[in-house]
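The protein record passed on below.

***
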Amino acid sequence: MAVKEFPAGTQLIQSEQNLTALHVVAKGSVCASYPGGTFYLKKGDVIGVCEIFFGSHFITYETEEPTGIASYPCTAAQLSALMQKSVDLANMIVSSLFRQFREIYDQYELMRFDCENIYHFLMDRYEEYKSICVKHGITPRALPDMEDLAPLTLEEDLESWLDGYYEHLTAMVTGKSSKFHAPDFLAGVILKADQDIHHIISICRDFYDYKADIASFLMNENHLDFFDLYASLLYRIGANDQDSTTVSAKISTMMIQMEDLPSIDKEMYQQRVAEYRTKLEHLGEGAGEDSPAAAADDVPDVEDSMNKILTYAEVDSDTAAAFREAVKKFDQMTDKNASDDAARKLRMSITKQFYVIYEKAFLKSMKDPSSVPKVVKMFFNFGYVDEHLAGHENAAHLYRIVDKLPTDPKRKVYTAYEWFTAIYKGQKEPSRNEFDADFPTFLREQKMSGNITAADEARMQNDLTEKVLFEIRNMFTTVNKITFGRVLSFCPVFSEHNVLKELDDTLVSADKVEEAFRKIRDIDFSAYYREVIYTNPDIGIGKESVGVEVLPDIILMPNVGSRGIAWQEIEGRKRTTPARMMVSIFQMEDLTNILVRLTGDFRWEMCKRVQGARWNDISEASLTSEYFDYIQFYRKNHELSADAKDKIKLGMKKAKNSYKEMFIRDYEAWILYEGAGSPRLNKVSRNIIFTYCPFSKEIRTRLMANPLYKETMARYDIKQSQKIHHYDNVFQKLKNTGVEVPPELQKQREYLLM
């Protein structure tokens, strides 16, 4: 067989590529890689022997140096015949198989150890961090998703006997006894071993993804990580404190860990470390820059804030006393995120009283909105109740910005207070509750349950006070907790320990929201278009489907949080009403990424709304029905490689077997990566999402040369051309009769060209 020469750095085979031959390394070396593992093939090793059973590759191969390759056309069905032709080649194939098995199995054991080690490393670092904070009278901070941090668990691990089994099998098959050299037997050994190797690599992928997820706690782009916790602690206690050496050593240990983690972006890591070292150099003696000595000038009006808020709200003396006592205890807690019963009950008590006070204060403010004190506005918009709990510097900052918040209801961005005011004035209807019941439905249910009379129902239907109370008691109490991000440690009052970044940097504004939606719509231009029917019999237009863009209302919850939620896709039953999405007013995570996720959620729910009961019926093509069918039957889908099926299985595990959550994850990859020309999805998922969430014309033009998109884009262009041709005919008929083209149809044609 002729040997073909390849220079160093040549990608010989890409994962998911069809397998049609085995390739013997005649000289040089080849790097074999898969998620979580790398090994090297030398002279005499065989590329593809670990994968031939599946008919496609799940390992990527690239030359490390100038390499010679001899190829032998072969499939699983032809393997026995190939082994029959040459005893030497058969021995080479089997020997290489066992050597590759040993490399992959050893990496499996190493990765298992690494996963256990990094989990315990993080938990130990967090306990040490809290201990140093307590020692210095500093309230420890908790990171988003800390509640979800858990040891690795596998649905299906390897059998304990597998290692010993292959050790003895290797000795038997590679030994001198001819009874183990029969071609059919050797082919059977290889094909069975391939299945075990694939299983091991699928577990290694679990390990890799777990390490990547958990590594983000060490360092991430949002600065919500252990590196920032320790660096901020060091800045605060000062370089000359007796514990500064300990904290510096912990940071150095983390840096060593991160240098060996491929999932952490190297450029980001170097930038963060450089920032840390620069700041450390400028750290003066004594108190750190975040210490009370560096606090902003006091604002007299924030003194005694809680009493001013309680007095304004006119709550009864028992409620006021209980709230003061509970907040005082909470302020004195060393670990405000503690999970013991006493801490949990205290947070629940504060939460219950907080909403009672909020209701009373809000209703009073509606009587005379112009005379609401600033500290009460801070309470409405930020959950602020006490200057000590918030930290004097934060309290002063909130006081300065509360009268000039960068929201704008005209641009569909509301503070919580502006939203409740809009409902109280009859400008907006209340949101559905957590059981998906709107206000009229809720009243009917209350009447049927005997909680109110028919007369009460009729009276309350148009009672604006009842409407706003329904909103506060249902949507607000639920969504405020969700957007905060850490539901188990949620407390609605503004507390300094939740502030993980500069408040100015995290304050959500109408400009930031518009910019985030612009980025999304530059990629997925049809995201917020709804299809409606246009008719105009007077000029001969029967029924034409036209798209109408309706951007969502964004409501900012009064908390320092890290999540968002798409609460409802329309108001009532009218499809041209805006969706409602909520995020925190101080958003710790990247706002654009959150709104990408909420857009994916909206796309799914809007499709379900349009399709009704047939949302998952594949006989009626739609985004949800096709995606549901794809996930439900992925194991039988011949278009998917074994590697792609493994990724879907793992993805569904992460999505907790939710089809909607799985779609949202794919949609995020579609917007954040595929739109930038970095493929992340498999062929089937990519085709479905492109069909219903097509890229804008600019991106389609840029990706047209990419074979991954070419076929799907060609089909899309044909369909769009047919629709445009239809409108051209309609326009020509109107012009022939002297009728001006309606702007609705003109806009639809322009939309089809996007």
In short: Confidence is low (pLDDT under 50) at residues 285-296. The longest strand covers residues 541-549.
